[in-house]
Each structure stands twice: as structure tokens, then as C-alpha cells.
Write a structure and sequence with these properties.
heterotrimer, A mainly alpha (about 230), B mainly alpha (about 55), C mainly alpha (about 230), A: about 230 residues, mainly alpha, globular, B: about 55 residues, 1 helix
Chain lengths: ~230, ~55, ~230
């Protein structure tokens, strides 16, 4: 309980800071809208093909949007040595990491929930036909991206090539979760329920989230302190 | 079948080429490390010489 | 002593490889459906096994660093990872050439190939991260984390044949309950693994020597600046 309470204290701090400034979420939203626009030039948005690639389009947008949120996650603490102060505080590195991961998850989820209707309007896609299950898939996929991204954000925060290293490290790791999320989203946006064929993707998402959350929390201390 | 054999040769050549390129890169890296070691050893000698003076 | 070991391993690997190549080309018959290109698998599969073994052994040494806090374990882990990456590249290239003949395409985005390519990207990231971190202990810690997370991904690669429908051939080796190869044709796969492991060990020893040189340079530089 202590672990959760301390983590949520960090989450609350980050979210409150973001609500005041709104710089990361604005940048991430704008970037997502630009990507949605750019994709419309790559193929004909009115064609039936859009339904086939809708899952992939959506998750590419989410993956690119996440890079802005995740890179700011620990970088915002560098000013005035706040990161050192947090690490020296009674809060354990694992709690610090978990709190930031939850904050990043909430921010990314907000961006995604704004992008979904915009995506539906731009590409004439009825995305809400299986909304509860789609929301579950979005949450599972987002958590997978967030937990990996937050860990690597902590790792690369003090490196001179931070902006290059973070995407280089994060994207290969999140490919399995993107694969599962894309396959499931494609089916759900098409209005079909998740059949027996696609259950394996759900299992992949859940397994990925559980395994990498445990590993990330276990290694938070190693990454942040040593 | 002849095409199969040709591609088999390409495959084996590619495999050994990758190993050869890696060995060459290792050799070049070792050479530059040894040169750097000689430079630093000279730097240490000069520093010790300065300190004795 | 180490030089003698390296030379010995290389000579032994070359001799064993020469003998295996003789066996593969003269004694093993063409596969009924694939013809001569089938023989590339005697290098493709052992390379894959060598790289997988290397990645897991490197993870073990990385974890030893975390326990013992001795940078030698990190040096060994980095050396093994780099050599395993070279063998992983060989696996991908030889597999691609095989696929060109059998599937008609240089590349197919199925689960096994994609996951293997992801492994290569992850470990390339590992080497890039090592270059970006100057402080040795921090570099060792980050490398350990990346190595462990990378190995979890390798497990997904390993299991992907069974989990997903895939264009890549399903398990055929008897150790994976495949039973899809004639007895005389399977043995050279394992026999060819031995010289590749010896060659990788020789390359790892050479690479470790360079890590030792690097440490010597760093400590002499610190000593020089202390005057």
C-alpha cells in the first residue's frame, strides 16, 4: 500500500505540473494531428483500404506521440537538480519509476482518446462499434509502451545523445505490443468482436505488460541509483 | 537446380564475408587502441618527468 | 597464453569446418523439394543457435556484474554480445538468401523473421548505448538492464513458431519435437555448430583483449591527469 501511495504521490506531482504548463500534452496532440494529416497524403483516405490499415495507422500515431511524452518524463526533473532530490528522497527508485509510468500512461491515454474521434472523422472510420474492448486494447497497449518508455527515459536522461537514444532503444522493444494492439484494433475498428483466432494477441499484450512491468520495477533501482 | 547452387554459393560467401568484415573491424580497432595506449604511456612518462623536476 | 588459445581455437574451427563442408557437399544428399539451397541451413541454423546462446550467456555475465560489481564481467558480456550480433546478422542474411529461392522473396514479414530482426535492432541499440555512456559502472548497469530485457524478447522470438501461424518452417529438429528431417541430414546441423562456437569463442577472446586495452588506456589517462 505504501508503494502505491508513494507512487501515486509522484503521479499526482507530474500530472499537476502538466496541467499547469500543458506544454507536453499540447506538443504531443499537435504532433499526432500532423501525423494524421501526413498519412492522408500517403494514400487515399476515402478508400476501403483505410479499414484494413486503420489499426496500424492508429498505433503509429500513438507510438510517435508517446516519444514526446516519454522523453520529457525524466528530462523535466533535470532543472534545478530535481532528479537528484527525488532520488535522495525517502521515495524508493521503484516508486519514483512506477509513479512516473502511471503519469505518462494517463497523459498518453488522454492524447489517444482525443486522437481516436479525429481519426474517425479524417478517415471516415466508425471506431466506436466495439468501444469497451477497443478501450481495453488501447489501455493494454499504452501501458506496454509507457512502461518500457519510462524505463529508457530514466536511462537516457543524462546522456548527451538523449533525443537520439530514446527512440532508438524504445521502438524495437515495443514492437511486440504494437503488433498485438494493431491486430486487435484492426478487428475492433472493423466492428467485429475478437474471435478465437485473435485471442493470442490479447495474451501477448497481457503477458508483455505483466513481464515488462515486473522487470522495469525491479531494474528501476539499478537504472536510477546503481 | 543450377540457380539453387548459385544462391547457395552466394549465401556461403555472404556468411564468410560478414565474419571477414568483423575480423577486419576488430583488427583496426585494436590497432587504434594500441596507438592510443602508446600515446597515453608517453603522456604518463612526460608527466612523471615533469613531477620529478 | 590467450593468443595461443585464440590461434588454437581458430585452427581447430577451420579444420572442423573443412571436414564438415566436405561431408555436407559430398555425403549429404539434396533435399527432395529444395535442392542444393537446402545446404545453406547447415550454416543458417548453427549461426542462429550460436547467436541465441551468446545473448543468453551475455545476460548471465551481465547479471554477475550486478552481483559482484566487477567490471570484467561487463567486458565479457559486451564482447559476447558483439560477436553474437555478427552471427545474428549471418543468420538473417543466409535466411534471406534461402527465402529468395524457396519463397521467391528476399524478405517476408512473418513473426519469426520480424522478431529476429527486432533482436538485431535491440542489440545494436545495446552497442550504441555503450558508446554513449562514458562512466564504466553506469555503462555496465545500463547494459545489464538492456541485456535482460533483450533476452525476454528473444524468448518471444523462440516461441513465435509455436504461437503464430508463420511462413518460416515449423520445428523440424528432433530436439524441438519436429522429426521432419531424415536422420543423416540432421546431424551435420549440430556438428557444424561446434566450429562456429569455437570461432565465436576466439572472436570473443580477441574482443575481450580490446576491452582490457581500453581499461588500461582509461586508467593510465586518469593517472596522467592526477599529476
Amino acid at each position: 500500500m505504501n508503494f502505491l501511495r508513494n507512487s501515486l504521490a509522484i503521479t499526482y506531482k507530474d500530472l499537476r505540473s502538466e496541467i499547469r504548463g500543458k506544454d507536453t500534452i499540447n506538443a504531443s496532440l499537435s504532433f499526432s494531428l500532423v501525423i494524421l494529416l501526413l498519412f492522408s497524403f500517403a494514400f487515399d483516405p476515402d478508400s476501403d483500404e483505410v479499414r484494413e490499415i486503420s489499426g496500424g495507422l492508429l498505433w503509429l500515431v500513438f507510438a510517435f506521440a508517446s516519444s514526446l511524452i516519454l522523453s520529457r518524463s525524466f528530462a523535466r526533473e533535470l532543472i534545478n537538480d530535481c532528479l537528484d532530490a527525488l532520488i535522495s528522497s525517502p521515495i524508493s527508485p521503484a516508486e519514483l519509476f512506477f509513479g512516473k509510468a502511471i503519469a505518462n500512461f494517463v497523459l498518453l491515454l488522454v492524447v489517444e482518446l482525443v486522437c481516436l474521434p479525429v481519426f474517425g472523422i479524417f478517415y471516415n472510420v466508425q471506431w466506436a462499434r466495439q468501444f469497451p474492448v477497443l478501450l481495453l486494447v488501447v489501455m493494454l497497449g499504452t501501458w506496454g509502451m509507457t512502461v518500457i518508455g519510462t524505463l529508457f527515459s530514466a536511462m537516457t536522461v543524462n546522456l548527451r545523445l538523449r533525443e537520439i537514444m530514446l527512440p532508438t532503444l524504445v521502438y524495437p522493444f515495443i514492437i511486440p505490443v504494437l503488433l498485438g494492439a494493431v491486430q486487435l484494433s484492426k478487428v475492433l475498428i472493423g466492428g467485429e468482436p475478437v474471435g478465437a483466432d485473435n485471442q493470442v494477441w490479447f495474451r501477448l499484450l497481457v503477458a508483455f505488460d505483466v513481464v515488462f512491468t515486473l522487470l522495469a520495477v525491479a531494474f528501476a533501482d539499478t537504472v536510477l541509483v546503481g | 537446380m543450377e540457380r539453387n547452387f548459385l544462391y547457395l554459393c552466394y549465401g556461403l560467401i555472404a556468411a564468410w564475408l560478414i565474419i571477414f568484415i568483423y575480423v577486419v573491424s576488430l583488427a583496426l580497432r585494436e590497432r587504434s587502441l594500441r596507438q592510443e595506449l602508446d600515446r597515453v604511456k608517453k603522456l604518463v612518462e612526460d608527466s612523471e618527468h615533469e613531477a620529478r623536476r | 597464453m590467450r593468443t595461443k588459445l585464440i590461434v588454437g581455437l581458430c585452427v581447430l574451427a577451420c579444420l572442423t569446418l573443412a571436414w564438415n563442408i566436405r561431408t555436407i557437399f559430398l555425403h549429404v544428399p539434396d533435399e527432395a523439394n529444395q535442392g542444393a539451397i537446402f545446404r545453406i541451413l547447415y550454416f543458417h541454423v548453427p549461426s542462429a543457435m550460436t547467436s541465441f546462446t551468446g545473448f543468453f550467456v551475455a545476460m548471465g555475465f551481465s547479471l554477475m556484474y550486478l552481483v559482484k560489481k566487477d567490471l570484467r564481467y561487463d567486458s565479457i558480456a559486451a564482447s559476447i554480445t558483439e560477436v553474437s550480433l555478427a552471427f545474428a546478422t549471418i543468420t538473417l542474411v543466409t535466411g534471406s538468401i534461402w527465402g529468395r529461392i524457396i519463397w521467391g522473396v528476399w524478405w517476408a514479414w512473418d513473426a519469426r523473421l520480424t522478431s529476429y530482426f527486432i533482436c538485431i535492432l535491440i542489440y545494436s541499440g545495446y552497442l550504441m548505448l555503450r558508446r554513449a555512456v562514458d562512466e564504466p559502472n553506469q555503462r555496465a548497469r545500463f547494459s545489464t538492464v538492456l541485456s535482460v530485457l533483450g533476452c525476454v524478447d528473444i524468448t518471444i522470438v523462440w516461441k513465435s513458431i509455436e504461437w503464430f501461424r508463420t511462413q518460416h518452417p515449423g520445428p523440424v529438429l528432433s530436439v524441438r519435437n519436429g522429426g521432419g528431417m531424415a536422420p543423416g541430414m540432421e546431424a551435420p546441423v549440430y556438428i557444424n555448430l561446434i566450429p562456429l562456437l569455437m570461432l565465436s569463442l576466439a572472436l570473443i577472446l580477441i574482443r575481450m583483449r580490446q576491452e582490457d586495452l581500453r581499461h588500461e588506456v582509461d586508467s593510465l589517462r586518469r593517472y596522467a591527469h592526477s599529476f
